[in-house]
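Chapter review: from sequence to fold.
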Amino acid sequence: MAFFLPEFKSVAPNERRAKRMRDGLKKVELAVLPDEPPEAERVPFLEAKACHCKWPYGTKLDTKFCGQPTITGSSWCEYHIRRALPPRLAEEIIRRRLAVKAGWID
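The token string follows.
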């Protein structure tokens, strides 16, 4: 009885793939992070509404939320989405939410 083992090739030596990855990384535009929301606009925990960004600041006893308007369908504002998620994912979420809000897609 003979066993045939598949031949495995390492991905690293593949020059074409490495070049495509480098070219793809050059095409990605890094989004500039907007300024952090001002401290004066932060909302106390018990006063937060659905439209307020839920990014927490402070300690357990003195927790406040960001308080900026949220992106549709999210609990964070644009600043905190961009801060918490990888750039491509953050851009995709923000663009999709804006398209839904504008009525371009469902």
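Two observations follow directly from the output. Strands lie at 43-44, 56-57, 64-65. Residues 37-102 form one domain.
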